[in-house]
């Protein structure tokens, strides 16, 4: 009886952390324009709308200290130039901001979507990288995820790493380890910079612009929550297999960098005459 009760309790606890995916309203709240976010499939998915009146956005109800967040996203099809769909984590602290960004930059029909990633750690950002996707991200749902632990941050697309930011604190490089972050998403008009550096403007004749998200999965230590959670070595995202890329993941990451990377701040001599220290890693 005592044993069964214990097993049951563990199931409850585990169920709370790992009973995924969640519905939209379990994890998130709308932060910008309710009218532009429509729940679908009984709340397991949503439709985001950008039109001439507004874009929209949402945020997680909790913040998290380490973990992995993922969702499936189907981006705006056709002429999406000037639009940006973002999915990111943010500490919400102005001056010492930590932020991990995925930004999907729309393009003219037939031109490739670009994914920009950026990392802010303890207030310092300017670490943009850009890759073009190797598939049409508006034709179907694909999984986008951010893994964040003490060892590294890994941005992945369908389990292919497209960006790794290692913990190089030992070399004096800032790394997010001291503040919890929330999960955010927005869809907005960024035609002053997004597509070909702002040359391509939004074609409002194509509005409304629609993006879809589903299968929300946040696994991490919520804050506020048990204070022992973030340092519990049995959190799966902290275990050995997640402390570095596997040889297979490393090969895929190299393949993305060789064939699809179109911009890397690490090699932008005009912005950084001195190569930033975290770039010395190689890959
Ligand atoms: C929709 O979700 C609610 C709350 O999670 C649940 O009670 C209900 O059975 C679901 N309905 C369908 C059709 O899945
Ligand atoms: C859009 O397409 C152009 C032309 O192929 C390409 O140079 C650019 O990198 C693409 N992405 C963005 C965000 O401009």
The hetero molecules present are: 2-acetamido-2-deoxy-beta-D-glucopyranose
The helix fraction, in percent, is 10-25%
Q: What is the CATH class?
A: Mainly Beta
- Put simply, the count of helices is 3
**pLDDT averaged over residues:** 92
SSE-based structural type: mainly beta
Radius of gyration: 19 Å
Q: Which word captures the global form?
A: globular
**CATH architecture annotation name:** Sandwich
Cα end-to-end separation: 53 Å
Overall strand count: 15
Percentage beta strand: 35-45%
Strand order of the largest sheet: 1-4-13-6-7-8-9-15
Q: Could you list the spans in which at least 5 consecutive residues all have pLDDT below 50? A: 1-18
N to C succession of SSEs: HHEEEEEEEEEEEEEEHE
Biggest sheet architecture? 8 strands, antiparallel
Number of separate domains: 1
CATH fold-level name: Jelly Rolls
Family: Belongs to the glycosyl hydrolase 16 family.
InterPro entries: Beta-glucanase-like (IPR000757), Beta-glucanase/XTH (IPR044791), Beta_glucanase (IPR008264), ConA-like_dom_sf (IPR013320), GH16_AS (IPR008263), XET_C (IPR010713), XTH (IPR016455)
Keywords: Apoplast, Cell wall, Cell wall biogenesis/degradation, Disulfide bond, Glycoprotein, Glycosidase, Hydrolase, Secreted, Signal, Transferase
Subcellular location: Secreted, Cell wall; Secreted, Extracellular space, Apoplast
């Amino acid at each position: 009886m005592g044993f069964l009760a214990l097993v049951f309790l563990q199931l409850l606890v585990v169920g709370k952390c790992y009973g995924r995916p969640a519905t939209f309203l379990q994890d998130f709240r709308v932060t910008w324009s309710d009218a532009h976010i429509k729940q679908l499939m009984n709340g397991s998915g949503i439709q985001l709308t950008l039109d001439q009146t507004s874009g929209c956005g949402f945020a997680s109800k909790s913040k998290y200290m380490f973990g992995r967040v993922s969702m499936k996203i189907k981006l705006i099809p056709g002429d999406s130039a000037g639009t940006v769909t973002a999915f990111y984590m943010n500490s919400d602290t102005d001056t010492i901001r930590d932020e991990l960004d995925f930004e999907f930059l729309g393009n003219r029909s037939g031109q490739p979507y670009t994914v920009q990633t950026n990392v802010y750690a303890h207030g310092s950002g300017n670490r943009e990288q850009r890759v073009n996707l190797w598939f049409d991200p508006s034709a179907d749902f694909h999984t986008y995820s951010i893994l964040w632990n003490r060892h590294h941050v890994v941005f992945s697309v369908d389990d292919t790493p497209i960006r790794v930011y290692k913990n190089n604190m030992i070399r004096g490089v800032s790394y997010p380890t001291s503040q919890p972050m929330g999960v955010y998403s927005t869809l907005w008009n960024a035609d002053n910079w997004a597509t070909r550096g702002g040359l391509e403007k939004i074609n409002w004749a194509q509005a409304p612009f629609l993006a879809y998200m589903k299968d929300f999965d946040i696994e991490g230590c919520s804050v506020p929550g048990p204070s022992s959670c973030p340092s519990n070595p049995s959190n799966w995202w902290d275990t050995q297999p997640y402390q570095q890329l596997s040889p297979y993941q490393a090969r895929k990451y190299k393949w993305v960098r060789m064939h699809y990377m179109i911009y890397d701040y690490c090699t932008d001599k005009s912005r950084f005459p001195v190569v930033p220290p975290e770039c010395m890693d190689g890959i």
